[in-house]
Predict the structure.
Amino acid sequence: MNNKIKKNVTSFLLLVAFTAAGLFFAENTIKRIMANNSNHSEIMAKSGLKQSIKLLFIGDMMFDRYIRQVQEKKGGDFIFIGVKKLLSDSDLTIGNLEGPITNNPSRSVDTELSSKDNLVFTFDPKFTQILAGENIKLVNIGNNHIYNFGESGLEKTRKYLDDSGIKFFGDPEDESTRMILDNIKGTNIAFINFNQFVSSGEQKTLADIKKAKNAKVDLIIVYAHWGTEFAAEPSDKMKNLAHEFVDSGADLIIGSHPHVVQSKEEYKDKTIYYSLGNFVFDQYFDPDTQKGLAVLVKIDSESRMQFEEVYVKMKNNGQTIQE
């Protein structure tokens, strides 16, 4: 073997050795970073890499009247024990908080269905810890009951949710919390409320969709509080609004307020769930109000969505169970 060949062989072997050493060092560095940081998802998000995620959407949650009494006697775990696995098997659970959280005494406990106070809700601050413990860490507050204890009730709601680490959107007063932009394992999602019970609700939602598009998020999800209570199907007005939101840029629409499960629709390759019905509620007077729909949305690294539907039932002992 002449000197030139020997020199080339030596250079090649050195290159292989250095490459192997570099790969070994890089691999072990990554392993050390993973081992020293328990929040792998945060690292992935900061690096810009996307992972598959699961979001769970649930319907109306009301924690006053009979539900408050159940919690006081049996604890919050009793209410959710039948859906604990369902709630925990997602990266984030999102639902509608049907009223304010305050330290005011209840006005609705033990009232008659026909009385005015029967529809005035306030939730014990203990429920924030219960929700956080059940992985319900994002709630919509844009609904017709959030003002049941006035502006002070709304202010207290913000405080108690913040203190418990629960994010919220749909604020009827504060534009900065009317929608929320969240990064979940590298996927940027805008959660936007439509509340038919506030002035210029449609225009506010369209404005928020536009802001989200300008922020170049991966997905825009509208959680709407709309429609007619106990109506089996969405109205033409709801459908027109849903189509308008999709035309403006919404990727998914989730509805609440009718207290019964309504139909879904595919419009321009986007999914619309007009009403998920109840999730925690004491409306035991009709089988339809005792039935709710939970929607598990699986989102891949390309922001494509797959849907899994799970029906739940509200038992008259205060529990919600998976059917």
